[in-house]
Amino acid sequence: MTTQKRIVSGIRATGSGLHLGNYLGALKPWVRMQSQAQNFLFIADLHGLTTPEHAGNLATNTREIAAAYIAAGIDPAHCVLFAQSSVKQHTELGWIFSCITPMGWLNRMTQFKDKAGKHKEQAGLGLYAYPVLMAADILMYKATHVPTGDDQKQHVELARDIAGAFNRAFGTEIFPLPEPVIQGQAARVMSLRDGTKKMSKSDESDYSRINLTDDADAIALKIRKAKTDPHPLPATLAELESRPEADNLISIYAALADTSREAVLAEYAGASFSTFKEKLADLTVAQMAPITADMRRLMSDAAHLDAILSRSAELAATEAEATMRQVRAGVGLWSAGD
Ligand code: AQP
Q1: Ligand 1 atom closest to Cα of 199?
Q2: Which of 115, 142, 222, 277 is catalytic?
Q3: pLDDT tens digit string along 101-131?
C-alpha cells in the first residue's frame, strides 16, 4: 500500500445497537470520505468489554455493526472492515503504550469521569485505560485522519500525544500524528429527552435515541415525543443558543438533509414543533428505512458477513504485524536473529 491519506476509526460493539448519533457523527462522514483514502474501519469488540453490562453477545453485535457499516454505504471491497479482537497486535501495542502513558493524561479524560460517575472505585481498569488501547487501534495503521463524533476528540488528541511520546522516547518516527476530523451539523447529536446530554447507546431510556433498527412507527413516535419548548421555531441561530432541544432537532434535520442549520431555519422559522416534527420524522424515516432494511438483509447471511470480516482481518493483520516489527525493534524487545 502506498502512503496517502489513511483513515482509521471504529464503533464500540455493545448490546444495544447503533443510533442516529453514531450514524450522523461517524458512519455518514466515513461514507463520504472513503473514496479519498485508505480506510481501516473496525468494530471495537474489545472496547465492548469495558462495560460488561453492555457487552452482551459480542459476536452477534459485531456482525450487526458490520452490517450497519455496509448498509450505510461503506464499501467492503475498498475498506478494510474488521473486528478489533481478530488482530491480536492491538492488545500488544496497547500494552506497550500503557507503559509510556502517564496516569495524569488518563486522569484528564472526561469520558471516564462521565461513564464511571460516582462509582470510580468500582470501575474496571479497562474502562480507565481504554483510550490507550484506542491509541493503539489508531496508530497501528499509521492513521493520518480519524473521523469521529465530537465526544471522541479528546481521545484522538491523546493518541497524538502518545504517538509523540513514543517517537521521542525511542528516537523513532514510526508514528505520524493523526488529525481528528470532526465534521458536519451533527458531530454531537443530543438525547431526544434532554438536549444537554449526548445521544448514547447506554442511556436507560429508549426514547432518548433513534436506533438504526427502529421501524418507521417507532421513529415517528420518538420524534413526536421528543422534548421541546413551547415556542415556535426561531429565525436565527442566535435564538437557538438557549434552546438545546430545538437546536438538536434542527441540527439532526440539517445533517440528514445535507444542508445548514441556517437553511433549515429559513424554511421553518415561525412553524410549530408539531409541524416541524412531522417533517423531521418523514425525512428520518426516508433515510433510515433503506439502511435498516439492508441491515436486516445482511444480518440474515452471517456467513457472508463473516467472510468479509475474515478477509479484512487478514489484510489488517499484515499491516499490523509490519508496524509491530518496527515497534518491537524500536523498544528493544528480543527477536530471533537480531
Ligand atoms: N451522540 C452522538 N453524536 C455524534 N456522534 C456520536 N458518536 C457516538 N455518539 C454520538 C460517535 O460514534 C462513533 C462510535 O462511538 P462508540 O459507540 O464507539 O462510543 P461512544 O462515543 O461512547 O458512543 P455511545 O453511544 O455513547 O456508546 P456507549 O453508550 O456505549 O458509551 C464515534 O465516532 C463517536 O464519536
Answers
A1: 1
A2: 115
A3: 999 999 999 989 888 888 888 899 999 999 9
